[in-house]
Amino acid sequence: MTGSWYAQRFRPDGGITAEGLRNQLGRPALSLPTVLVRESAQNSWDAKADGARTVDFTMELATVGPAQLNAWRSLLSTGMPSVPPEVFPLRPALREMNLRYLSVSDRGTKGLGGPTRSDYAADAGHRNWLSFVLNSGEARDTEGGGGTYGYGKGVFFLASAVGTVLIYTRFKDDAGALRTRFIGSSLWASYTSGDRPFTGRHWWGVAQDDHCEPLVDAAADEVVRALGLPRFEADETGTTVTIIEPNLLDPTVPEEEAQQLPPEEAGRYLADAMGWNLWPLALEGRRRRLNPRMVVSGAPVAIPGEDNDAVIASFAAAYRRLQTPDGELVECKRPRRLLARFAVERTFGAKSRSKAASDLGLVDDLTEGEAPHHVCLMRTPELVVRYVPGPPAPHRDIGYAAVLRVEDDLDATFAKSEPPTHDAWIDSQLHGQEATFVRVARRRTKDRLDEIAGARKNTIVAGDQPVGSVARKLGHLLAGVSASGTGVGGPAVQLAAGSTTAGGFGSLLGGGPGGGGGSAGSGARAGGARRGSGRPRLEGLPHFVESEGGTVLEQRVRLPGRGRFVASVHVVTGDGKLESDPYAGAVVPSVIGWRSEVGTLLAGDTVDADVPCEVTLLVRPVVDATLDISVAVAAP
After folding, report:
1. pLDDT per residue as tens digits for the range 312-321
2. 452 vs 400: CA distance, rounded Å
3. Tell me: the pLDDT tens digits for 177-213?
4. Residue 496 φ then ψ, to 5°
5. Cβ atoms within 10 Å of 355's Cβ, excluding its own
6. 3-class DSSP state for residue 157?
7. Which of 596, 598, 620, 592 minimizes the C-alpha distance to 504?
8. DSSP characters for 574-625?
9. Is the whole-model pTM more than 0.90?
10. Considering 334, 470, 556, 613, which has the largest number of Cβ atoms within 10 A of its Cβ?
């Protein structure tokens, strides 16, 4: 278990400072917890073992227990450099009674094998230790991998308030034997001690004159046991990176005002970030999938996914349609090239209130929530690159969730367009045809989102009726109503079995028995009806609910008194007229029935009333259409 700190000196031919390494990720637009989830999960996914069907990716937030605290202090204080805390802040942190850590573990991955010295030659398949622990800017040579810069590991140090992580790994050597390694690594600030300049990079392990070797096998396992960190079971391989004193500030407030999130809130945020950033890899039915887990103080935290979050379920539904006939091809015309595939899922009532989703630009109003109106960009690794917003749908409960996936043969091109944090496609970073492909994909996607939201459709003007009447007469542009629906709306609507003829609400509303004859009246629509007590009137705007049979449009109707009334619903065409002759096979809206104030349901388009009352008209809508809802006095 003997270990000690090694401080890296500047070599005669120079070297990179700790500050330079910490700045390699730049200033990400996303919060640090989100970037930590994205980059660490990408590292794990790129390291998946050959033949592994599942990669287990776990984050565990915990406090060092009293039984292990002395081990942390005694082990990690050995050989600590005699420098001020501002250049090696781990020293004062170890004196704290509530020392926190965040372990990021993967299993079903290759682990960090290969040489432990950078001056030893190694082929592409034996450089995992070198690329992750020692070298900077060296991406893993992994087919279908997401990393292109080799800078993503820097987020582990940024996520530590003391710039220090512990790395524990298990791998199979060339003979197939299981081997383990353990090393500490600290990255904070360069400094001068005596007359010697130091880079600010430190390692804890078996210190040598010019480098630091890891503890191996039984010694490595014993240190991990003493520190109380996650260990390996049976023949597992993989890596655990433990972040000391995780820097988990509240990302919803300005950085200068942010406070550390309490453990439960921090865990909830990280769990949500896993769900919103990793859902494509976590879908059931994948040939190879990621299994994300979040644990806080020993208790699991639920990860949002397609089985428990309506918005993610909508994106997942779009993703699953990419390779079906519903998937659309995104093409470049000059030169002729297939760029990507696109699919969209309409949503109703599906909203998110997640802070992690807000960080990704999916939610502006965390109190009320927001329906999605975004496309999820992804390429070969199928990690979320970015959610790009499109125009919102006309109704706040309606939305759309789209997915754009780049073709595999263009993955390298789009990867080169990404910044180190892999959260955008920037064509200005490319030249020639490659820049054209990225630019065209972005433009085609924007145009398609405009079409989905109805932003490119002509505005419908309904004659010379007053604006108030038009608002009540016309429904909403149903540019996002799903045929099946993934959201949760109002109460379910279920008609009584066999109730297929006109009925009455008379006895329930205080009048005589229903079903009697009604007074005669004209067929004028309620929205444009003349003022008078004998006409029905639509009250307020229609709204949507989710029933067991799909989406239902509800409209409150004021019935003037004794009589029979009939409802109708039609699609409004582009010139403002009612569609009377739909094309063959077209889906048309229909009247389902009526609901009284006490909940009685009647099927059919006709209803009788004995006294003035308010009832609810139930309509089955259609997608991508504006509806005209009309209630009139039935003809005798």
Report:
1. 999 999 999 9
2. 8
3. 999 999 999 999 999 998 899 999 999 999 999 999 9
4. -65, 140
5. 21
6. helix
7. 596
8. TTSPBP-SPPTT----EEEEEE-TT--EEESSEEEESS-EEEEEEEE--SS-
9. no
10. 613
